[in-house]
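quick q for whoever's on today - can somebody do inverse folding on this one?? i tried earlier but teh output was garbage lol. tokens:
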């Protein structure tokens, strides 16, 4: 009875997350992601009761039928939905929480030959975009969204967005929507924004340098290069986001200019970016 109750939950979750779903019969007949999850639940039960070979054979059969490979040892929570599904691989020690959504081509892979925990843990309400790879015994925090084709190799805090190769982790400044977070088009370009801001900063420094070069030297001054170097050093050290400044010093008002890119996006703890830099 518990198995059939889980099946009903799974069917309801498809209606919630896939606008293409039109009827229960259509879901039962044409959603390989659901078939793979149901097959895994049977295989996982066999695995836990010691029927390892039979469980692996059933997993292999479901892979042949659906194009989705889920090791029978993987632990999967309730209302897990794999949309489209072809090419999904979930390793033996992977753990998946409730209300998680995966798209096609996703890999939850291991990075070690040692036995024990070597695959990712996805907490509740995580959405993983098409083609993303999450590798190693890392945890993706609840409510996070992994962008398509991202390669995630380090832990992800809750309520984050990950984009790029290797994955850049952005802690969101806005709350996660109550419904499944499927806004895959809202993806911050952390590296691109930073490079653009750095280019703009260099242009500002070049303008300052040109102004200093054109400024007449006071009478009796002979060390022009030393004066320019001192002025530039003071101007650079006033920037709050440079390494070593700790974000504590603020540039004077005259140091700010109209900027298309705003302040410089910067990483905070352990390579994690701030969502305030990207308004997500």
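ok took a stab at it. sequence:
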């Amino acid at each position: 009875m518990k198995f059939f109750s889980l099946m009903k939950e799974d069917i309801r979750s498809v209606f919630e997350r896939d606008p293409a779903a039109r009827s229960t019969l259509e879901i039962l007949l044409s959603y390989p992601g659901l078939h793979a999850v149901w097959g895994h639940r049977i295989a996982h039960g066999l695995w836990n009761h010691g029927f390892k070979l039979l469980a692996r054979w059933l997993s292999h059969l479901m892979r042949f039928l659906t194009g989705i490979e889920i090791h029978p040892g993987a632990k999967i929570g309730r209302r897990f939905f794999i949309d489209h599904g072809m090419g999904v691989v979930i390793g033996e020690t992977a753990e998946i929480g409730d209300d998680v959504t995966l798209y096609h081509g996703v890999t939850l892979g291991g990075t070690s030959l040692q036995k024990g925990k070597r695959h990712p843990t996805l907490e509740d309400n995580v959405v993983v975009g098409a083609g993303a790879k999450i590798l190693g015994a890392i945890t993706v925090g609840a409510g996070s969204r992994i962008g398509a084709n991202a390669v995630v190799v380090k832990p992800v805090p809750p309520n984050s967005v990950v984009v790029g190769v290797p994955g850049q982790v952005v802690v969101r400044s806005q709350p996660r929507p109550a419904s499944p977070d499927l806004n895959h088009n809202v993806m911050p370009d952390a590296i691109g924004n930073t490079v653009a801001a750095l280019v703009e900063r260099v242009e500002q420094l070049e303008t300052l340098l040109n102004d200093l070069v054109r400024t007449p030297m006071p009478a009796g001054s002979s060390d022009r290069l030393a004066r320019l170097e001192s002025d530039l050093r003071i101007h650079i050290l006033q920037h709050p986001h440079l390494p070593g400044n700790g974000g504590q010093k603020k540039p004077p008002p005259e140091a700010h200019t109209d900027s298309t890119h705003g302040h410089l996006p910067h990483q905070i703890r352990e390579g994690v970016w701030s969502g305030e830099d990207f308004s997500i």
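fwiw Residues 1-190 form a domain with the UDP N-Acetylglucosamine Acyltransferase; domain 1 fold (CATH 2.160.10.10). also The chain is about 35% helix and 15% strand. so keep that in mind when u check it
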